[in-house]
Structures are given as structure tokens and as C-alpha cells.
Amino acid sequence: MTTPLDAAEPAVQAAGSGDGRPAYRGTLRYALSKAGGALLSVAMVIIGTFFAFRLLPGDPVRALAQGRNMTPAQLDLERHRLGLDKPLIEQFFDFVGKTLRLDLGTSYEYKRPVIDLIGDRIGATLLLAGTGLAIAVIFGLWQGIRAGWRPGSRFDRFSTGVSLVLWSVPTFWLGLLLLMTFAAGIGPIPGLFPTRGIESVDAPDGFAYLLDVGMHMVLPCLTLAAVVYAQYLMVMRSSLLEEVSQDYVTTARAKGLRDDDVRRRHAVPNALLPTVTLVFMRIGFVVGGAVTVEAVFSWPGLGQLFYEAIRVPDFTLMQGTFMLIAVAVILMNTLADVVYHVLDPRVRSA
Amino acid sequence: MTSVAWTRRRLAFGRFWDGFRHERAGVIGLAVLVAAVVLALAAPLFIGESVTNVVKGTGDRMAAPSLDYPFGTDESGRSILLMVWWGSRTSLLIGFLAALLTIGIGAVVGIAAGHFRGWIGAVLMRVTDWFLVLPSLVTALVLAAILGGSTLTIIIAIGVTSWPSTARLIRAQTLAVEARPYIERSKALGGGHWHITTRHVLPNVAPLLLASTTLEVASAIVTESTLAFLGVSANKTSWGTMLRASYDWGAVNQGAWWYILIPGLCIVAVVMAFTLCGRALESVLNPRLRKAGV
Known about the structure:
Chain A is mainly α. Chain A is about 70% helix and about 0% strand.
């Protein structure tokens, strides 16, 4: 986990070509170089995963079989089936080839291909993480703008305090508290929301079904959004603070613009770009939060799949979900990088 | 010569302390922090490992707070108060050691990447950026699951996944320091890489390292509790493993709020203390932040 408080670090370098060529050529070259970097990162993930999972202490077949009794003949057969009797280099190329063809092996726990399991679960995760992220971005940015525009005001101190507390709160603990208070019910408070899952056992069809899923989503979304929102608030605030003292803001005021206009039309657009990029740069943090939230609320998504893989432990499943999550995060980061380059005129026309 | 240096250092520390004293939140954080550390260190004088022993629980199961058990009991009748007290030792130990590992790797990589400009620096930055985009919690979970959950492996898992932001910070600072003329003078006098990095760069980045260490301890404690809650942990009582047990034993549905509330509040209090302290250190030591008034 990285601290949200060092958000002022310039995560995005302006990489203008500056040799007088048309701007789009520079952008294209920039996008290509970023894509190359992303490919290298993905390759490093695959290589890293291969070797990390070969670090498993003891015999991998036994580890995979989770201590079930097997005869030596069965062990040999299994070893042969998994290709573990081949030399390491051959295993490595097998692994890379299969991974590139999206063949992530078969889960021991579920007796099904890992990629199918991922396909079943990914929708629920996208729903939860997408909604949570949207809420966090909207509220975080809005409050960050208000706080950063008037540093030291009561609203600013309140916001900073809230985000500091939320940042210190472990995600899963916040989830447990919400679960206990609003789902299980405590004292005079009745249980308002369902405690687990994405739908009721006897879920109705049509609109009522959507309502049912919505009710199940309230608490997990709230938990995920609360922790992420605190980060975005701080990032937006410090980003706006850097703009407040700039000359162009003084100029805008000097020519008699109303305070709201100076903020909305001058300061915020400039502060927004680096913030939004940072928001997507920290998508890995959201993913970590989603895993935790899904575990607490038994939300049947990718995070819960990963969590189950760790609890069992089912190393094939763990390996597959890990690679998928890591690659997804890398792609999101690269995309954010390129979009920033396209959007920010300061970088584009450089 | 040494006495001059020491006088200078003493004066610098005096100035620093003067600045820190005026950061009210930082002083409060420091006080909480010192109290927590002293309590954790003093725990063996009053209680022993036996308070976490399942068969030695003396109270009722999941009993609400009472005079005998101020914070209630858990599923085996153990006192939550004593468990939390004893568990603070594991939580703080892992927090401190993981933060030290994080800062150690971050400082070495950061200084090296800033000092050696050529391909070494480029490769180091590439690796740093790679680790920076990896979802750190997920990676730490995988590492801890592969290496098996002992205190040492949890520390390694946290350290290996959280150093990149420190490395970037230190690299930026190293670049700024190395641009100063006295580094050139030192090179002209024949100072080698080792001399320049340890004698000139390191003392200059040390204050930043101190501030980041404090912030890293905070996030390491949160990460440790999350790892423990998600099921990879050193099988020792910590605040995270207590919360895991409360979830496993259905404290949520039984309304045993004390079992969930107390360990969590401990985490929040200690983490906030470290964060406040770290932010105060940062604003005193980092002139750029001080000027901006953040």
C-alpha cells in the first residue's frame, strides 16, 4: 500500500517530442513506447509468476494435492500430467505458451478450468468495483476541490480529518462494522441489508431482481468507496493547492472574475488532469480493496475467488487470478498514461 | 573537527525539535506512539503468552464487557483486553520490521538509481515502476501464501511489495542533492561512488527517510492486519488474527461488538498516531511542503 499523502509526486512525466513535428506523431510515438513498456511489464508478470510459484517449498505435486494420500505411482502420473518431469526450461516455455493461449490450468478445488471460473466471476467484480470507484471519484473529487480551494477552512480541516481517519481504518474492519450494524443488526437497529452474496436465494425476476441486487450492493460498495474516496480527496486537494498560488489564478482574479469562475474554469481543469491520472495509477489499491470487501461480504467475484484460492490453498487458481489481476492493472495504468498525454495540451504541444 | 560537526548536528536537532513541537497533531501522535510501544515492551512484565492459550480461557464464551473483563471475552473465554495487549507485540513488531525492510530496499534502490545515471539507473527505475503498478496487497497475499505464514515471511511479503514509492521519493531527492556544487568538489577531490553516496547523499536524504519510515509503519500495520484477516498470517496473536477469529466465530451475527470493535480501534489508534507523526515530520523536514503550507 502506498501512502496517499505523498500524492504531490509527479507520477506522469511530460514526454513531449519538442522537435517541431506534428503533434499527433508525438502522441503516437508516445503511445507506442508506453505500449512497449506495458508489454515488457506483462512479460515480467508472467516470468515472475512462473518462478515465484516454483519457489513453493517441497514437492509442487504434493502441495497441489493438498496432502491427500497418493501412491508413488499416482504422484508420478500426476507429475507427468503437469509436465513437471520435464527440464525447467521446457516447463517454462510450456507455461508461457499456455498462458498466452489463456490456458491457465485446472483448479484442484473446483475441478474446472481456471479461465472458466474467472469468466463466471468477473462480472460481479466489475459491477462492484465500477460502482464503488464511481462513487469514490465523484465524492472524493468534489470534496477535494472544495477543501483545496480554501485551505485551512473549517470544511478543509473536517475533510482532512475524515480522510485521515478513513485512511487509517483497515478496509475489512470497516466492512465488519457495517456488516454488524446494518446487516446483522445490533441493539435497537434491525438488520437492514443482506449479510452476504449478490442475490437472495429466492430472488424474483425482472425489476425486483435488480432491486434485490441493489440491496446486496449497498454495504460492499459503501465500504470500498469510503476507503478509496479518502485517497482521492487528498490527491485532489493537494493538486488544487499547487494551482491556487499560480500566477494565472491571480491574473484571473485581477481581471475581475467571480471566485466560482476562477475555480471552475481556471484552477480545477488544470488540477483535474494529474488527479484523474493518479486516480487510475492507483487502481491497484482499488483492486486490493475489492479483494478484501468481497471476502468480507462473500461477494461472488474475482476477489472472492482469489481469497478462496488462498484459503484452500489452490495454487493453480491463485496463479491464474493473480496474473489476470496484475495484467489488468498494468493495462489500466498504461491507458491512463496515454489518455493523459492526449488530453493535456501542455504535454501535447510541447 | 568532530566537535564542530557534533555541535552542528545538535543545533540542527534543536531546530528540528522546535519545529516539531509546534505541530500539535504530531506531538499527540508521538505521545500515543510512545505509550503503545512502552505498553508492548512492558507486557511480559505483567502477563505472558498464556493469555492467548485457548484452553486457559477463564471467562464465559463471548461474554459482554464486565468488571472482570473490561473488554469482554472471545469464543474461548479469553480476555479481550489481555489478548489485545499481548497481540500489540506482534502487530508492532511486524509493522516496524516491515517498514525498516521497505525503507532499506527503497533507500538503496533510490540512491543507486539517482546516483548511477546510465543503464543501471534506467534498469532500476524500470523495475521500480513495475513494482509500483503491481497491486501490492494482491502480490503480498500471493507471496505470503507461497512462502507460508511465519512472522518473517509476512515481513518479507510486506517489504517486497511496498518499497517502490520510497525508492521514487529518494531518487528524486538524490538527483536534487547531486546537482549541488559541493558534490562536484567532492568528485574533483577524488571521492568515489561509495564516498559520495554514503557521506553526502545519505545524510541529505536521511530526514526524508525518517518521515517515510513513520508513514510506512502505519501502512505496514494495516497490511499485516489485512493479510491476517484474509488468512495468511503468522500463527501468533495479533490484532489482525483476532479480527479473523471474530469473523470465523460469528461475532458479527451474535452482536459481540466488543470482539470486533476493540482490536480494530487499536489498529486505528496506532496507525493514526504513526500517520500524524509522519506528516508532522514531513512538514518540518521538507521545506517544499512547508512553503506550500500543506
